[in-house]
Amino acid sequence: MDVAGLLARAAAMVPADVVNEAGVTVVDVREYLDHDEWEVAFDLLADLGCRVQPMKRRCSAPAGAQGMSSAACTRYAPR
């Protein structure tokens, strides 16, 4: 996989409502990728990624319940 593909996959993991201090969103990152501006897209992704944090567990099953992984109960939200 090439750099643009890896960055596109990373952008797909950023929630759409995450915005940095300059008002940049993942939509802007995708536009930079469309214009082959990988370095800018990478820097913006790094900044947006710093604004995402795991939310508290919201799962009906207790941790370690049979057939339920902890990853299945974790959601991510903007800071």
Architecture overview:
- Helix 1 (3-12) runs antiparallel to helix 2 and helix 2 (26-34) runs antiparallel to helix 3 (38-49).
- This protein has a two-stranded antiparallel ribbon.
- With 79 residues, the protein is mainly α.
- It has helices spanning 3-12, 26-34, 38-49, 70-73; strands at residues 52-54, 76-78.
- It has one domain (3-78).
- 44% of the residues lie in helices and 8% in strands.
- It is globular.
- It is built from four helices and two strands, in the order αααβαβ.
Topology:
Blueprint: H1 3-12, H2 26-34, H3 38-49, E1 52-54, H4 70-73, E2 76-78
Helix pairs in contact: 1-2, 1-3, 2-3
Provide tags for this entry:
single chain; mainly alpha; two-stranded antiparallel sheet; 8% strand; disordered C terminus
Quick summary:
The chain has 79 residues and is mainly alpha-helical. The chain has helices at 3-12, 26-34, 38-49, 70-73; strands at residues 52-54, 76-78.
Q: Kindly, what is the distance between the CA atoms of the first and last residues, rounded to a whole number of angstroms?
A: 31 Å
Low-confidence stretches: 72-77
Largest sheet descriptor: 2 strands, antiparallel
User: How many domains, in number, for the residues?
Assistant: 1
DSSP summary, beta strand count:
2
Query: Which whole number gives the mean pLDDT?
Result: 77
Please, how many helices? 4
* Helix content range: 40-55%
Structural class: mainly alpha
- Gross morphology is globular
**Relative strand content:** 5-15%
Order of helices and strands: HHHEHE
Q: Describe the strand arrangement of the main beta sheet, using strand numbers.
A: 1-2
Oligomer: single chain
Radius of gyration: 15 Å
